[in-house]
C-alpha cells in the first residue's frame, strides 16, 4: 500500500532509501529512530594516557617483536613485514578440478606494517604537517613498489581498540594480493559502468556536485574535498576525494600531497573534537588496480579514501551492524545532512 500523499516528505522524519552508486546497493535511512532512548551496550572510553614509549609495545623504536626481530631506532616512518601475515607469496595452487559449489583459488601476497611516527602517544591529526607528508610519500612508494607485481595494494588503518587495534601506536597496514578483493572489484564494475554511460569518472562528477551543493561537505581545499557521502552507512562516515582526476595515490603531485596532509589533519581533528576523544575508525585508500591492470585503460577510476568510524551517539555508544543490516540491507538512523549540521560547530583546532 502507498503512504499518504498529502504529507510532504521530510528526510529527517520519514524513512527512505538512498542509492550507493559505488556498490550498486541501497541504504535504508530512518532518522526518526534517533529519538528512541538508548539502553544498549556502552563501550569503555578510549585510553587517553598512553606513554610516549612503552618497552613492551612491539611497535616502539628499539623494541623486539614477537618473532624476536628488533626494530631500529627509527625517527620517522618505519615499514616491516607483518610477523603474522594473512597473505604469503608462496602459497601453492589449489588445483583445477573444482566442484562449482566448492571452489577455491590460490591466494598470494605480502602484508606489511607501517609505523607513522616513533611516539606511541601521537596520532595523525597531532603530527606535524611535514610528518604527515612523509606518511603519504611512503604510501605512494609502497603502492608503486608492490603494484609492479600485485593487482591490488590495500592501505588501511584501524585506529583505536574499538576497531580491533591491538597496539596503541600510530600505524597502518598494507596488504598486496594477487587477486582483486570483493570491495574494489565491485567498485571497479560500478565506476566502469558509470563512465561508459556518462563519459566522466563517477567520483570526479560526484565531487563537483557535492562542492556545488555544500550540503554534506565536512572540510575542503583547492585540491581536496571531504564529505559525508549521500549514501553513507556509518553515522560519521566520510569520503575523501581529490578535485583533479587522479588514478592512484602515487600519481599525486608534491603540492597535492601537501594539501592532502593538511586536509587529513583538519578532518581527523574534527573527528577528535566531535566527542572530545581520540576518534576510532577504519580507513583505507582505493585507487585504480595495479599489476596487470597498469597496461589497461583505468580512466573510470578516481582515487579516494573511505573513513568508517563506529561511534553513533557519544564516545561510548557505537553503531552495530547486526540483524537487519546483516540479513537484509544497510541501515542508518542519522541522515548525512544532520551529521553536517552537528559538525558545523566542531572546530579544527587540535586537542591537547
Automatic annotation (TrEMBL):
<keyword id="KW-0548">Nucleotidyltransferase</keyword>
<feature type="binding site" description="in other chain">
    <location>
        <position position="158"/>
    </location>
    <ligand>
        <name>UDP-alpha-D-glucose</name>
    </ligand>
</feature>
<feature type="binding site" description="in other chain">
    <location>
        <position position="331"/>
    </location>
    <ligand>
        <name>UDP-alpha-D-glucose</name>
    </ligand>
</feature>
<keyword id="KW-0479">Metal-binding</keyword>
<feature type="binding site">
    <location>
        <begin position="319"/>
        <end position="320"/>
    </location>
    <ligand>
        <name>UDP-alpha-D-glucose</name>
    </ligand>
</feature>
<feature type="binding site" description="in other chain">
    <location>
        <begin position="164"/>
        <end position="166"/>
    </location>
    <ligand>
        <name>UDP-alpha-D-glucose</name>
    </ligand>
</feature>
<feature type="binding site" description="in other chain">
    <location>
        <begin position="82"/>
        <end position="83"/>
    </location>
    <ligand>
        <name>UDP-alpha-D-glucose</name>
    </ligand>
</feature>
<dbReference type="InterPro" id="IPR019779">
    <property type="entry name" value="GalP_UDPtransf1_His-AS"/>
</dbReference>
<keyword id="KW-0808">Transferase</keyword>
<feature type="binding site" description="in other chain">
    <location>
        <position position="66"/>
    </location>
    <ligand>
        <name>UDP-alpha-D-glucose</name>
    </ligand>
</feature>
<keyword id="KW-0299">Galactose metabolism</keyword>
<feature type="binding site">
    <location>
        <begin position="324"/>
        <end position="325"/>
    </location>
    <ligand>
        <name>UDP-alpha-D-glucose</name>
    </ligand>
</feature>
<feature type="binding site" description="in other chain">
    <location>
        <position position="173"/>
    </location>
    <ligand>
        <name>UDP-alpha-D-glucose</name>
    </ligand>
</feature>
<dbReference type="Pfam" id="PF02744">
    <property type="entry name" value="GalP_UDP_tr_C"/>
</dbReference>
<protein>
    <recommendedName>
        <fullName>Galactose-1-phosphate uridylyltransferase</fullName>
        <ecNumber>2.7.7.12</ecNumber>
    </recommendedName>
</protein>
<dbReference type="GO" id="GO:0008270">
    <property type="term" value="F:zinc ion binding"/>
</dbReference>
<dbReference type="GO" id="GO:0008108">
    <property type="term" value="F:UDP-glucose:hexose-1-phosphate uridylyltransferase activity"/>
</dbReference>
<feature type="region of interest" description="Disordered">
    <location>
        <begin position="39"/>
        <end position="68"/>
    </location>
</feature>
<dbReference type="Pfam" id="PF01087">
    <property type="entry name" value="GalP_UDP_transf"/>
</dbReference>
<comment type="pathway">
    <text>Carbohydrate metabolism; galactose metabolism.</text>
</comment>
<comment type="function">
    <text>Plays an important role in galactose metabolism.</text>
</comment>
<feature type="binding site">
    <location>
        <begin position="33"/>
        <end position="36"/>
    </location>
    <ligand>
        <name>UDP-alpha-D-glucose</name>
    </ligand>
</feature>
<keyword id="KW-0862">Zinc</keyword>
<feature type="domain" description="Galactose-1-phosphate uridyl transferase N-terminal">
    <location>
        <begin position="9"/>
        <end position="181"/>
    </location>
</feature>
<comment type="similarity">
    <text>Belongs to the galactose-1-phosphate uridylyltransferase type 1 family.</text>
</comment>
<dbReference type="InterPro" id="IPR036265">
    <property type="entry name" value="HIT-like_sf"/>
</dbReference>
<feature type="active site" description="Tele-UMP-histidine intermediate">
    <location>
        <position position="171"/>
    </location>
</feature>
<dbReference type="GO" id="GO:0005737">
    <property type="term" value="C:cytoplasm"/>
</dbReference>
<feature type="domain" description="Galactose-1-phosphate uridyl transferase C-terminal">
    <location>
        <begin position="189"/>
        <end position="344"/>
    </location>
</feature>
<dbReference type="GO" id="GO:0033499">
    <property type="term" value="P:galactose catabolic process via UDP-galactose, Leloir pathway"/>
</dbReference>
<keyword id="KW-0119">Carbohydrate metabolism</keyword>
<dbReference type="InterPro" id="IPR005850">
    <property type="entry name" value="GalP_Utransf_C"/>
</dbReference>
<dbReference type="InterPro" id="IPR005849">
    <property type="entry name" value="GalP_Utransf_N"/>
</dbReference>
<dbReference type="InterPro" id="IPR001937">
    <property type="entry name" value="GalP_UDPtransf1"/>
</dbReference>
Amino acid at each position: 500500500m502507498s503512504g499518504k500523499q498529502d504529507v510532504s516528505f521530510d528526510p529527517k522524519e520519514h524513512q527512505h532509501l538512498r542509492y550507493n552508486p559505488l556498490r550498486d546497493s541501497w541504504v535504508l535511512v530512518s532518522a526518526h529512530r534517533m529519538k528512541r532512548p538508548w539502553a544498549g551496550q556502552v563501550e569503555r572510553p578510549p585510553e587517553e594516557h598512553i606513554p610516549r614509549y612503552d618497552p613492551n609495545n612491539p611497535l616502539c623504536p628499539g623494541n623486539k617483536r614477537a618473532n624476536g626481530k628488533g626494530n631500529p631506532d627509527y625517527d620517522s616512518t618505519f615499514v616491516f613485514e607483518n610477523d603474522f601475515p594473512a597473505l604469503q607469496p608462496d602459497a601453492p595452487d589449489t588445483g583445477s578440478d573444482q566442484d562449482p559449489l566448492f571452489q577455491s583459488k590460490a591466494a598470494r601476497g605480502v602484508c606489511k606494517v607501517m609505523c607513522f611516527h616513533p611516539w606511541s602517544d601521537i596520532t595523525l591529526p597531532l603530527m606535524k604537517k611535514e610528518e604527515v607528508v612523509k606518511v603519504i610519500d611512503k604510501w605512494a612508494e609502497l603502492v608503486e613498489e608492490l603494484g609492479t607485481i600485485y593487482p591490488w595494494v590495500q592501505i588501511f588503518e584501524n585506529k583505536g581498540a574499538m576497531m580491533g587495534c591491538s597496539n596503541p601506536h600510530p600505524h597502518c597496514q598494507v596488504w598486496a594480493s594477487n587477486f582483486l578483493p570483493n570491495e574494489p572489484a565491485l567498485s571497479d564494475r560500478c565506476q566502469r559502468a558509470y563512465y561508459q554511460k556518462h563519459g566522466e569518472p563517477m567520483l570526479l562528477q560526484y565531487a563537483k556536485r557535492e562542492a556545488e551543493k555544500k550540503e554534506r561537505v565536512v572540510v575542503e581545499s583547492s585540491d581536496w574535498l571531504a564529505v559525508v557521502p549521500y549514501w553513507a552507512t556509518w553515522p560519521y562516515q566520510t569520503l575523501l576525494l581529490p578535485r583533479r582526476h587522479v588514478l592512484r595515490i602515487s600519481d599525486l603531485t608534491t603540492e597535492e600531497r601537501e594539501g592532502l596532509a593538511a586536509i587529513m589533519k583538519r578532518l581527523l581533528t574534527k573527528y577528535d573534537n566531535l566527542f572530545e576523544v581520540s576518534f576510532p575508525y577504519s580507513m583505507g585508500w582505493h585507487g585504480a588496480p595495479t599489476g596487470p591492470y597498469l597496461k589497461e585503460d583505468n580512466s573510470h577510476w578516481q582515487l579516494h579514501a573511505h573513513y568508517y568510524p563506529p561511534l553513533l551517539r557519544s564516545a561510548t555508544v557505537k553503531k552495530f551492524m547486526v540483524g537487519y543490516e546483516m540479513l537484509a540491507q544497510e541501515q542508518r538512523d542519522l541522515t548525512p545532512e544532520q551529521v553536517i549540521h552537528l559538525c558545523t560547530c566542531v572546530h579544527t583546532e587540535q586537542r591537547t
